Amino acid sequence: MNAKPSLISELRRRNVFRVALTYAVVAWLLIEIAAVILPTLGAPEWLITTFVVLLAIGFAVALFISWAFEMTPEGLKRTQDLSPDEVLPYWSRRKFATFIIGTAVIAFGLSAYQLLIPRPIVRVSNTGANSLQQQPDATSSAEDTSNASSTERMLRELDEHWSKAAATKDVDLTIAFYSDDAIVLPPNAASAETKETIRNIWKDLLETPGLVIRWEPARVQLARSGETAWVNGTYKLTMNDPSGKPVEDHGKYLEVWEKQADGKWKCRADMWNTDLPVSEPASAEKK
User: Fold this and answer.
1) What is the pLDDT of residues 84-132, one digit of tens each?
2) Which residues contact 124 (CB under 8 A, 6 or more apart)?
3) CB 237 within 8 A of CB 206
4) N or C, which end of the chain has less CB nearby within 10 Å?
5) Is the dihedral of CA 37, 43, 45, 50 positive or negative?
6) Rounded to an integer, what distance in angstroms lies between the CA atom of residue 85 and that of residue 63?
7) Is 152-274 CATH 2.170.130.30?
8) b/e sequence 17-53, b meaning 16+ C-beta within 10 Å
9) pTM listed for this prediction
10) Where are the domains of the chain?
């Protein structure tokens, strides 16, 4: 009485293992080809996901066919219907190994190509809007919002550093926050449109006896271009009047900042005025 063959031996006899290995390697190659070609054609990412799912379903179908059927010169036949002496096409181990290794090498090469060669990042500048049109989507909107928030936070910190620089009464450090073409509009005085006149305004202010000055940004608004922004806030200062008595002042200010050619931000326009009534003696010299 013949012993019943084990499951492993039956799987080997029906070439299930070979079919599984062949299918897995070929599917890997197809996935790598799709991952390289589809993005260049502008295909959506869900298309690759759908392709992988279909290959997974096909794997189960291939295993079932290899178990239930055999390929004969006359086509597919049910394994149980084959006669013991029927001759079946058969790949030698050498040919099978050559095919598997060759396919795997190609798939591995494509996988390595995607890992080692970075995908180009398309950046759309304001000046290049006419040469490249890009439809807005949720991702680009989120990135734009994140970039704007980062710039606004940076400008707020920059304005706070400016206030601390003025508190040290260092004239050169204070006026370094202005651009070369800046304009300053102080209250009750002519506008200053050169670095020298701007320097004189700050020099006179910082040399005032008893001066204590600071300001704080309240709002930062970035322009759509991303190259210009305005900052407004409040200032407080204390100085001695001619009799030596401390006089306090407080008010508001508005600054216009521009991104320079070197990527740094500088104040292009600066103006401020006091909140105190005209009837009260107050000198709103600066924020």
Assistant:
1) 555 455 566 777 778 778 888 887 887 787 777 655 544 434 444 344 3
2) 132, 134
3) no
4) N
5) negative
6) 24
7) no
8) ebbeebbbbbbbbebbebbeeeeeeeeeeeeeeebee
9) 0.49
10) 7-116, 152-274
